[in-house]
Amino acid sequence: MLIKPLHRLWRLLPPSSRRYFLARLGAYLAPSITFNPPTASTVIIAGEVSRASGLGEGARVMHQALQKNNISSRLLDVIPYSFSWDRYTKATQILSEYPHAPLILHINSPQIPYALLALPRNLVKNRRVIGYWAWELEILPKDWMVGFQFVHEIWVPSQFVANAVQKWAKYYNKPVRVIPHPIADRVVYPVSHICRKSLGLPKGKLIILVSFNLSSSFARKNPLGAILAFLKANKHDRGICLVLKISYSEHYCIDMDKIMNVIQGHDAIIVNRNILSSAENQALFHYADIVLSLHRSEGFGLVAAEAMLSGKPVISTNWSATSEFIDESCGIPVPYKLVPVKDSREVYQFSNAYWAEPDCDIAAQAIHKLVADSDYRFALGSAACKRAYKQFNSQSLIKGLSAIGVVTDME
């Protein structure tokens, strides 16, 4: 009888307070780490590898890169707040087989205690634990404080994230290393057997792709800004088509209603809500002509980086992590103004938080320029591909492994 009143009281708390309480509770229950544990040469990569999320993809890509570079690694599916006996049994098997293998958790700081609680306590205790974290603002919310005490060091995909975590990392005396996702060494799938029609793409149109996961924040991904820029460009360029690739739309009906209301009556806009395989996703980038990312902030920008690797020009907001690898030589950075964060889900909503509001008019002009000048479009895509292979290889990852005592053949 007490559960319903307690639940109502819980729901009355602000989301930030609920998240902080959960993080502190996890910190109280989770196993502490051992100072200076031994390190073996096999690496265990753990995270939400069974889910289509940015951190899940980061874990999968890191595992693929290690395999390509002949570095022994195992992949472990760990989902905070969701216990599974099958996952626990698999974790027990792998962790028992490699008792001193460092554990790289692609799990953000507030969920680190719950990730550790989902693993056999005795097999985590005397092991090096690294948190691979991504965050999208210049400052951290208070629930992020808890994860620092459960990792030996922190790896991040960009300098932007490093700057955000540095203050608390210094307080807890934890090293921070910038290790971009090594997507240049990911598995490349053949896509010739995947036709445009199977992906819902029309013939005879230049494809402008906007790809995002709704669980990663509707406000931050800013699909309405991308739609607005496309509609402005479409007034002058009728031979273009906007493809909105949206993951997990079924869980965010209010957000999807906003999108569908804006695009209603516009035949040049196609929505793809399917969860694509890795091969299908690479095929989608293959058929795209331009990739548009008018985000308000990114901790890395996997979509933009993947597009560059596929040789596609990217139009992207010139702020946060994407500004570290997209400039005028390999893409079109879109100017912005910083504005206070307004997030209806209140994931990013806290005092003194700012993110970018990209200029949709200039983004529309960029679309028109790329559509009108195919030579420029192809040259920019070629330069983007070269930049991506140079910036997103495995060198930083291998240096990071060497720093923690993992011996590789690359040394």
Automatic annotation (TrEMBL):
It comes from the Bacteria. Its EC number is 2.4.-.-. Keywords: Glycosyltransferase, Transferase. Gene3D superfamilies: Glycogen Phosphorylase B. It is an enzyme of class 2 (transferase). One of its GO terms (molecular function) is glycosyltransferase activity. Pfam families: Glyco_trans_1_4. PANTHER family: PUTATIVE-RELATED. This is Glycosyltransferase family 4 protein. It comes from Commensalibacter nepenthis.
